[in-house]
Write a structure and sequence with these properties.
Length: 236
């Protein structure tokens, strides 16, 4: 059986589909800015004049930067969905998407683990966090032998870990939180799967966009340093 090109816990086809999902959110830099779309997203002319005068920039430059900023929100959302889609393709796991009665993001096909997955520690506010807790509680009530996890990838202090999730004084040993590289480790069973995923992204992105945007050795060193600082327990 041929060796996978990218990672060894999902097929190359699945990995590229997940990468393409994010790449497709990036704007075409050579295309003109769609002013109608920008206006639909409620441009703020007050902020516009503050930005232009303080930044000593031209209106056309500000418009282009604002277009990129608006796309950035979609891109950030898709990066969170990238992790969900990717891990949902691991053998024995399912990406539940939307519409599943559990209302969570991922589960093991044998219903032994349910997971609500976010990209960053601060993605959810207090109301949303309460909703997450309620969803996980319903999962463990309906599945008495299951574990349920509130999971997220990026933690403030760059750590990775797993712990009981005590919420507003409520403790349930079958409801836990997990973050950083430990999320990938739980799903794949491989302590190196998180670093493998990050390391292979440049090649996969180039394959998706059909270009060869090489990264200089100096930039590679800087990127590796960012990864090591952001996820201190997970080496390349």
């Amino acid at each position: 059986m041929p060796k996978n090109k990218y990672v060894d816990f999902v097929s190359d086809e699945h990995f590229l589909r997940c990468v393409k999902w994010v790449c497709d959110a990036y704007p075409d830099k050579s295309a003109d800015v769609n002013m109608e779309m920008l206006q639909r997203n409620a441009l703020d002319p007050f902020k516009m004049v503050f930005d232009i005068v303080n930044g000593k920039t031209e209106v056309e430059t500000w418009v282009k930067n604002e277009a990129i900023r608006q796309f950035d929100k979609t891109i950030n959302n898709r990066i969170g969905e990238f992790h969900q889609k990717l891990l949902g393709g691991v053998n024995g796991w399912t990406n539940l998407g939307t519409g599943d009665e559990s209302k969570v993001d991922l589960k093991r096909k044998d219903n032994s683990i349910f997971m609500e997955l976010k990209n960053k520690f601060n993605t959810v506010n207090a109301d949303s966090l309460q909703s997450v807790r309620q969803k996980l509680e319903r999962c463990v009530i309906k599945n008495p032998k299951a574990m349920a996890y509130w999971a997220y990838i990026v933690e403030r202090d760059g750590s990775s870990g797993e712990s009981p999730w005590s919420y507003r004084g409520e403790n349930n040993p079958r409801i836990r939180k997990i973050w950083g590289g430990k999320v990938y480790e739980l799903v794949t069973g491989d302590t190196m799967s998180f670093g493998k995923t990050w390391r292979t992204l440049p090649a996969a992105i180039n394959d998706v966009i059909g270009k060869r945007n090489a990264i200089s050795e100096e930039n590679i060193r800087k990127l590796v340093k960012f990864f090591e600082d952001s996820f201190r327990n997970y080496d390349m």
